[in-house]
Each structure stands twice: as C-alpha cells, then as structure tokens.
Amino acid sequence: MIPEPVPSPPTDNWQKRPSWRERFGHVPWFRRYEFLGGLFLLLLLLAFFLPPFGRPESALAWMEIVVFFLVVLFWAGIILTDIEKPNWLKAIAAVLIVLVFGWLFYQYSGARWNKLVHAFFNWDVLNSTGSYGSTTSAWIELLAGLWLTLKLAFFSMIFGTLFGLILAVLRNLHDPVLNFFLTIWVDFFRAIPIIVLMMLIYYAFPYLGITLSGVVAGVLTLSLNSSAYISEIFRAGIESIHHGQVEASRALGLTTMQTMRLVILPQAIRVVMPPLASNYVAMVKDTAICSVIAILELLKTAITLQSWLANPTPLVAATALYLVILIPMARFSSVLENRMKARGISRAFASKKG
Amino acid sequence: MGEDRALMIDVIDLHKYFKDHHVLKGLNQKVYKGEVVAIIGPSGGGKSTFIRCLNRLEEPSSGKILIEGTDITATRTDINRVRMEIGMVFQSFNLFPHLTALQNIKLAPIHVRRMSEKDAEERGRQLLKKVGLQEKASAYPDQLSGGQQQRVAIARALAMQPNMIFFDEPTSALDPEMIREVLDVMDNLAKEGMTMLVISHEIGFIREAATRILVLADGCIIEEGTPNEVLKHPQHPRTQDFLSKIL
C-alpha cells in the first residue's frame, strides 16, 4: 500500500520569529510581566527615597541615584529588547528613560538653571525696544530679519538654479574648449569659501568701480556659489537619462535644443528634485553668512540685538525661527527622496550638504 | 531593380571607423522606392552602424550618402530636414517615458513639422488605431508591454510621414509572444509600399515581406539577392555558416 504523502508544514509564516514559548517552552523569568511589575514597584520605592533637590553630598545619596537610574535602564531595556511586548509598552519605556534621565540631571547636576534661563531664555527681553534708534520691539526686528533672510534665499535660489541650469546645458554640449573653462569656473566657485567670496565681492569690488549694495552682493555670492553645485546636480541628472532618448528625438528631426527642452530636461527634473531640494535647505542656512557684510538678516539682527540688549536670548529666538523654516524644508526634501526611491529611479548624485 | 522607380538611398563607398576599428569597409548600395531590404549577418558585422550612418546618428568617416538625392554628408545639409523623412525604430523602443503614448506620437509633428495641435492629435489617434492601440492613447510607456511600446514607437515614426523607415532589430528585445504583433504591423507597412530597411533575424518575416536581403559581415556586403536566392541557395561560405546557425 502506498503511504499517504506527509503534508508539508505551513510555510506562510516563515518570516515570523519564533516566540519565547516556541523557542524555550516557557517565557524567561525576567521577561515575565510578574517580574517586570515587581521591578516597577521597586522603582517607585527607590524614587520615594531619592534625595532632595540640589547636588547631593553623601555617598549614600549618590549611590541611591545611580541604583535608581540603573534599575530604570534595566527595566526599560528588558521591555525594549522583547519583540513580544506590545508597542505601547515599549513607547512608555522609551519615554520613561528620557524623562528619568532629564529629571535626574535637572535635580542633581547642580546646574544654575535660573541663570541659564535668565541669559538664554529671557523672553521678556524680546518685548523691550530693539537696537539703537529703533521704535519697534526686538521681536518685530527679528521677524523683519527673517523676512530679509527669506528674500535673500528666494532670489539666490532663483538665480542659482537658472545659472546652474545654463552651466549644465552648456556642459552637455561637450565642447572641449568650453568645457575646460566651465570646469575651471565651477571648480573655483565650489572651492572658494562663501564667506571669503562674499567679503571679496562686497569690500573689494568697489575698488574696481563696481559698488554693490549689501543685498545684491549677498544674492550674487550665494547664487554664484550655489549655481556651481546646482550645475553639477543638473549635469548628473542630464547624464542619467538614457542615450537612446537623445537618439530617438534626433532621429525624429528635433534639434539639439528641442531635444534638451522637450525630452531631456523634463525627465532630468524629476531625477534632480531631491538633491535640488536638499541644496535649497543648505542655501537658506548659508544666508546667515550675509551677516559678515552687515546685511540685517536674521543672524545679524540677532547679534545686533544681543549686544544692544546685553542678552543672548535673541540668538536663541533666531535659532528657533531658522528651525521653524528649515525643518519642514528638510522633511519635504526627504519625502521627495523617498518618493523617488519608491519609483526606483536611481539617484547617484552627491548633493551639497546633509 | 527597375530604374523607373525613384532612388531613395544611394550609398557610395561608405567607410566608418571607431578609432582604429574599421567597421564599414566601403559599402555601395542603392535602395529604390517601395523596397523592403532585410539586413542580416553576424553580430558585430556593422549592420546597426550602417543603418545609423544613413541618418547620421553615427557620423560616416568617408564616402557619400544620398537620401532622395540630397547628400547628407555635405556640411551645408540640414540633417534635421533629412531626418524628418526617415523614420527610425529602435531595438529598445526609446519611447519618451514622461509622455503618454499619444503625446509621444504628437511631439515631433508639432515641434518639427509645425503641425497644429489638433491635426497632430487626430493623426496620432489614427496611427494608434492603425497599430491597434487606440485605447492606450493616454497610457504611459511603463504601463505598456514591450510589444505595445514597440508598436507605439512605430506609430511615432510614422507620424512624421516619412518616406522610409529604418528598423534596428525591432523585435530582439521582445518576449516571443509579443514578436508577432509587431511583425504584423511591419508586414502591413510593407504591403502599403513603404520603403523599409530592416535589421532582423525573423526569417519568417523576411521570407514573406522582404524584397531583398543584404548579408553584412565584417563591414562588407558579402551577399545580396532576393530572399529566395539568399535563404535557399546561399553562395558565400559565411552566409551558409550564419544561416545554418539561425535556421
């Protein structure tokens, strides 16, 4: 008699890791909820005996703090390394570590919190009248600085992108002589520190009979610098388009420029968007360099207010304003990047920063 | 071949070098209106290079190429005007991935022939119908199968109303079950009297549609004749060897 074929084990959950019970036949004692619950009670007990606020003096108090912290780490560590624990419990454990560490530091580091707050987070200072001869409050001046920063960034983006695009298209003509000079040009503006270039343009150009206002000099510098990077980004984007595309359009009778405009660039733009966006983030940050040529953009405003009010809070406020603008931008560029990855388009380009 | 028919392509002593590599060694060839010339031969024999020299996707190193009487190697010739008259279909389709099938077809008539948007649209739809893809007008190339893409590519070439079409291995990148649909379209074109140069090893298609076969090996035309002559009674030993391998 032919034996029945043995049914093969189900294979649909082959990716799942075996549970503790499947692996050992039981859950290890330290991963049991009874143990973790008991440990938590011990934690509460230890917390009750923590020394009062201020730098502790006795060795016993120090030991108490250290033991408390280690037990918290141990407790959270067990939960976080256990794939069978629910996610909400892990989230609580993670938050608890951060809170406990912060709390202990706040309580026992002996830091002079009042002075720190008075110096760097003295928001009342921002309500007082701004710098010399000003009638508005420091807040308003900071916002005016932010507005100027955004304007600088906007125009630098426009001119930098246009100029970079032109450089990239010229490079794509593959003319050896032209390429030689373009390479020198691009390398020069990539190599020279922006701050040096800006000071040269603002302070040295007047001797050549070219006097530029601060804002124009700033935008010019940032555009020249970013166009060098952006041209490289565009060039990589253009080169990433398969050569068959050029052949197909040329075979149809399109001219070189029509091919570029109608076929290559529309495809290259999609590839180029993520590195371009991250370059724009860097450009907004680079506007801070304009403070060296006395443009009252956000950083310069903050520095001026700092010395006028004899308090560094404006700097912290300026930082906050930069973050409010830049974090969404950075997020946006990551979203673009992920979308590109999802579409499977390769991006083998080095962007400027971050 | 009758002299009464218009001379479409006249190649005189065409040489092509890639650096030191002599790819085409003095080809001479005349193609008349309505001919379907199949070009076969071992890979590396210069088939693609030959066909690409004829619309100057490759620059000929020396020799003359006359397309409908125009010397395309002369510097004053506007090559884009000549290319308008030559359709080209590639092995890898080379459709524009950012445009729909219909937009792919419309692009060149609008920007090169200066056709109006409306006429181009109408012509595009006609051509899509002709290649059997009227319902795929708004599909992007990556939503089409290989065979469908190649048929759109043929429609795109036809949209310029060319006087001749070159096919550079149009079916070699296709899965076997899609070859037929592309060959059918090409068959119909041949029946309509289109002048065609076809690099292909689809012997069935060649036997039926081609009026002449060129065998290219090592940069020379080693044999030419009707499909019957060449396929049944090859003279040159290299042709015999080649055919014995692919048949």
Describe this structure as you would to a colleague.
The complex is a heterodimer of chains A (about 350) and B (about 250). Chain A is mainly alpha-helical and about 350 residues long. Chain A has 2 domains: about 20-110; about 125-340, MetI-like (MetI-like fold). Chain A has 14 helices and no strands. Chain A has helices spanning about 20-25, 35-50, 60-80, 85-110, 115-120, 125, 140-170, 175-190, 195-205, 215-240, 245-250, 255-285, 300-310, 315-340. Residues about 345-354 of chain A have low confidence and may be disordered. Chain B is an alpha/beta fold. Chain B contains 9 helices and 10 strands. The model of chain B has no long low-confidence stretch (mean pLDDT about 90). The two termini of chain B are about 30 Å apart. Chain B is about 35% helix and about 25% strand. In chain B, the strands form 2 sheets. Chain B has a 6-stranded mixed sheet, with helices on both faces. Chain B is globular, with a radius of gyration of 18 Å. The chains are: A mainly alpha (about 350), B alpha/beta (about 250). The interface of A and B includes residues 242, 248 and 263 of A.
Poorly predicted segments of chain A: 344-354
Measure the end-to-end span of chain B. 28 Å
Mean pLDDT level of chain A: 88
**Percent range of helical residues of chain A:** over 70%
C-alpha-based Rg of chain B, rounded: 18 Å
General shape of chain B: globular
Helix amount of chain B, in percent? Answer: 25-40%
Short description:
The complex is a heterodimer of chains A (354) and B (247). By secondary structure, chain A is an all-alpha fold.
